[in-house]
Amino acid sequence: MARPRIKDVARHAGVSEKTVSNVINDYVHVSERTRRVVRESIEHLGYRVNLAGRHLRKGRTGIIALVVPELDVPYFAELARHVIREAEQLSLTVLIHQSGADREHELAALAGFGSDFVDGIILSPLALTADDLRQRAGVPPTVLLGELLEEGADHVAIDNEKAARQATEHLIALGRRNILAVGGHEAPGLGTAEARTRGYLAALAEEGLTHHPDALLAVDDFRMPAGARAVTRALDAGLRPDALLCLNDQLALGALRALHEHGLRVPEDVAVIGFDDVEGGRFSVPTLSTVAPDKAAVARVAVQLLNHRIEEAAALTPRTDDPEGSGVQAPQDRVVAHRLVLRESTEGSELR
Question: Per residue in 196-210, is it b (16+ CB within 10 Å) or e — as a string?
Answer without folding.
Answer: bbbbbbebbeeeeee
